[in-house]
Amino acid sequence: MVSLDVSGFRAAVQDPAAVSTRAIDLHANAHDASHFLLIPQAVITAKTAADVGGLLRASAAQGVPLTFRSGGTSLSGQAVTDGVLVDVRRNFRDIEVLDDGARVRVQPGVTVRALNARLARYGRKFGPDPASEAACTIGGVVANNSSGMNCGTVDNTYRTLESLTVVLPSGTVIDTGAPDADHKLRTVEPQLYQGLVQLAGRVRNNPDSARRIRQQFSMKNTMGYGLNSLLDFRNPVEIMAHLIIGSEGTLGFVAEAVFRTIPRLQHAATALLVFPGLEAANAALPSLVETGAATIELMDALSLKVGQTLKGTPAVVHDIAVRDHAALLVEYSAGSAGQLDELQARGSGILQGLGLSAPAHFTPDARERGQLWQLRKGLYASVAGARPQGTTALLEDIVMPVPVLGRTCRGLIGLFEKYGYSNSVIFGHAKDGNVHFMLTDGFASTSELDRYSAFTEDMVDLVLAEGGSLKAEHGTGRVMAPFVRRQYGDELYDVMRTIKRLFDPAGMLNPGVVMDEDPVAHLRHIKTAPPVAEEVDRCVSCGYCEPVCPSKDITLTPRQRIVTLRAIESARLAGDMALVKALESDYEYESVDTCAVDGMCQTACPVDINTGSLVKRLRKNDAGKLANRAWNAAAKDWEGVTRGAALALTVADKLPVALIKPPNKAARAVLGEDTVPLYSAELPGGGSARKRPAPSGHVDAVYFPACVNTMFGPAGLGRGVQYSFEQLSARAGLTLLVPPGIDGLCCGTPWSSKGMVDGQETMKAKTVEALRAATRDGELPIVCDASSCTEGLRQAVESDTPAEGQLPLRIVDAVDFAAERILPRLPEHQKLQSLALHPTCSSTRMGLNDALGVVAGAVAERVDIPENWGCCAFAGDRGMLHPELTASATARQAADVADLDAAAHASCNRTCELGMTRATGSQYRHVLELLEEVTRERS
After folding, report:
1. Is residue 380 predicted with pLDDT exceeding 80?
2. Is pLDDT above 80 for 377?
3. CB 927 within 8 Å of CB 909
4. Neighbours of 617 (CB within 10 A)
5. What are the DSSP calls for 620-663, one per residue?
6. Closest by alpha carbon to 357, among 323, 312, 330?
7. Confidence class for position 635, pLDDT limits 50, 70, 90
8. Lower CB count within 10 Å: N or C terminus of the chain?
């Protein structure tokens, strides 16, 4: 491997600081979702296509390989390198909707989910529908020719592409949709232009090549280059554009692409059909396809057995004694209820003749459909999450002609048994003959690698003997690069090698991907996963957590926090203490200090990891005895602490900011930025005490006003959420009891987020005791008016085991309580014209957002959640300790809010309101404050 001259790469981009060789950046970014690991020599965050062109030229000049990375969700090793890794996720996120949604121009850093969210308002969607849509980006979708469960080969990336703007390895930029694209390619890149013309003729004039290509690409197929473009198109520009699709970053960089979109079908009905075996399920496919089924997903017997262990498994699976059974998850989609009824009737009409092992019916019910899909989508998480500690999960995909699907799956199961791979479930897209399977092993010892090698050889023989392809969706990558010649034969393999030479004569773009002459390349560079922490050891590095992480654009993501810990442990085991020191020196700020511990990563994680739990433990380990004692003392006199904080803010609010900033910054410099908050002008004065007289007579609920509203007063001229909630409850005829001693009580989140265990236990004991007394041992619900505090209270009472005769304590958020018990009793009222709504991480984790939307809908005629909504990362005091974190987390959302120009702005948690106020310059208030105002009787 050639060592790079970093100065040459810094000179190639607009911002030299975008080029990093820090150990933590190299190791944190080294991992994609595959089982391969290479450590780059530099990580560069490109900002423009011009940056990319400069980097490509620098790469060729120095002979250093270059690889592009966007979402990092690829499974075949196509996004790892030991050369230069270029991040195109952070700065390539523009979307331009064209022709009222019929077409869309999009950049490579945009996730499929974000793109579909933009298109939804037009009743359209992106054609490809990969299961990783929440995290995979358009860059990877283009690079892998992604498809998915519904789109098949009709609406995949290749078929829906209209044009793209590509930066070639020479640095030449071609917009294939431009009127002069053909002329520019012919004049600026004559060898490439003529070479494509010659290759197209070579293939067309060879009947065997043409036949083989048509057979291979009649199925889903991402093995090798898309040679079908040589038959499908005659214009060299179109051939080039479609060769780029599925080329896995080996031929050029796609700076943007234009796609045709497809209708977004809003109506669906789903059924799970259980068959005696794989062959019976396979035999049913033609009839089901003929009825117009949009999706047909296969699950083998082991999948069903695993599914029986999942929560909420439907009775049709849970109640069956699984032997050799197989199941098909079948779904119909339609643009109207009438069309769905017709499709559903067709499907129901053939069920009796399919020889099912259990009764089945199609359901349009969203909850029931969700359970069925959870069964299918929970397979990967269940098997990968339960794998032995220190092992790696390897997810593969293959495709074969549909008529031999059952037979091929049987052969695959035989190979699992032959090589001792237990828990290897088979599932996938039966309608397309495309299945996925998983292997879990260490893939480290000689015996493990020999076993994997022998299995792979037999699997390759099995699939190719059935006329299949070794890759259907996941891309060739490194894992199947040695087998491309075997699948296509010498002639077509030589065509592929010629394509690579035409585009990339120096061979610098992603070498080792798509084609590799080394027959054992797939056995090299397999990553290990040494145990580092119980909370995260089951991480499979899929990257699903990254789009929802508020620190993703400033420091590390959850995946990166975990893999960096593994890198530290691997270095320690290897005796490389210099690397351990280098990684640990930056880990504190990059991982611990700037983690919002908001738990949003858990909402996206297929194996249910909350990286915040790890960070809390690391903070606990870092906390000194003095800090623990101080926070424990605070827990014992929380009323004094909160009133003191309120008084300080009230005084500060009356002083010029210029007078406060110097001593504030000096304190941060001496005591540490992670200890002393940074004051900012938008912070309000302090709030008021929470205590209230006890009501006489009947009580409907115990009200636990959050202490954050004592420390931070209300926005503007408002009176705060406690006043508003009390007024709303009174209007609805509901009586609230605020627990005695409330000003000394707290949900415990300030202690848990900082890892101050002693103080957390002290506060939890006080609070639970007070709540038991106030609720008459659980008879009354407890209502809290800040979503993060509601979540904190729920966590606090989890360990409270009711004694005999006691009921469990029930914690309800004030928004939920208002939606269910207050709104129905409020009079008709005039609404605001528009409202910008900020759901919080806690409201999302608790499933509160539907109720939040209902309440917001009672406030305003139009309610908008910004397209780039996410956690604001204010996180209690985290946004004051590290304001750069909140600034980064809210930047895109703030731009959306400005465009909305709403009449009011609301959330459901005081610190989040502060964070969004700072980010947008607009006053955010609790949604219940606004509800109280619009329903107030006018004199």
Report:
1. no
2. no
3. no
4. 15
5. HHH--HHHHHHHHHHHHTHHHHHHHHHHHHHHHHHS-HHHHHHH
6. 323
7. very high
8. C
The DSSP code for 509 is B
3-state secondary structure 682-734: CCCCCCCCCCCCCCCCCCCEEEECCCHHHHCCCCCCCCCHHHHHHHHHHHCCC
CA separation, residue 587 to residues 20, 35, 42 (Å)? 15, 24, 18
pLDDT digits (tens, 9 = 90+) for 863-902: 999 999 999 999 988 999 999 999 999 999 999 999 999 9
- Give 395's strand partners: 438
Q: Which two tokens stand for residue 787?
A: 């979503």
**What type of residue is 188?**
V
| pLDDT above 60 for 939 | no
Identify the pLDDT of residue 682. 86
For the CA atoms of 647, 652, 655, 659, the dihedral, rounded to the nearest 10 degrees, stands at 140
Q: 3-class SS at 812?
A: strand
C-alpha span between 336 and 123 (Å, rounded): 12
Cβ-contact 683, 652 below 8 angstroms: yes
d(CA 305, CA 173): 52
With residue 216 as reference, give the H or E element that holds it. Answer: helix 207-216
Beta bridge partners of 332: 269
At residue 110's C-alpha, the angle toward residues 105 and 116, to 5°, is 75
pLDDT at 422: 87
Cα→Cα distances 605→238, 393, 536, 556, 618, Å: 39, 15, 11, 16, 20
Beta-carbon contacts of 837 under 8 Å, excluding residues fewer than 6 positions away, are 852, 853, 856, 863, 864, 865, 906, 907, 927
Separation CA 19–CA 16 (nearest Å): 6
Tell how strand 161-167 and strand 124-125 pair up.
unpaired
Q: Which pair of structure tokens corresponds to residue 215?
A: 């057979």
3-class DSSP string for 769-810: HHHHHHCCCCCCCEEECCHHHHHHHHHHHHCCCCCCCCCCCC
Q: Is the pLDDT of residue 1 over 70?
A: no
- Do 330 and 270 touch, CB atoms closer than 8 A? yes
Q: What is the mean pLDDT of residues 841-854?
A: 96
Average the pLDDT over 377-400 and give the result.
85
CA distances from 181 to 57, 164, 174, 656 (A): 22, 11, 7, 60
Residue 791: burial class (beta carbons within 10 Å; 0-12, 13-18, 19+): buried
Rg (CA), the chain: 29
**Residues 215-235, mean pLDDT to the nearest whole number:** 97
pLDDT of residue 717: 83
Return the number of other C-beta atoms located less than 10 Å from residue 97's C-beta: 18
Burial class, 831, CB count within 10 angstroms (exposed 0-12 / middle 13-18 / buried 19+): middle
pLDDT of residue 767: 95
Stated as kind and residue range, the H or E segment containing 115 is helix 112-120
Report how far residue 101's alpha carbon sits from residue 118's, in angstroms, rounded to the nearest whole number: 9
* pLDDT (average), residues 656-675: 90
d(CA 177, CA 162): 8
Residue 311 to residue 823: CA distance in whole angstroms: 33
Asked if residue 246 lies in contact with residue 222, where contact means CB atoms within 8 angstroms, the answer is yes
Torsion on CA atoms 103, 107, 111, 113, rounded to nearest 10:
-20
Q: What is the mean pLDDT of the chain?
A: 94
Give pLDDT tens digits for 148-186: 888 889 999 999 999 999 999 999 999 999 999 999 999
C-alpha 181: how far from chain center: 36
Q: What is the pLDDT of residue 392?
A: 87
Each residue of 36-87: pLDDT tens digit? Answer: 999 999 999 999 999 999 999 999 999 999 999 999 999 999 999 999 999 9
> Is 250's pLDDT higher than 90?
yes
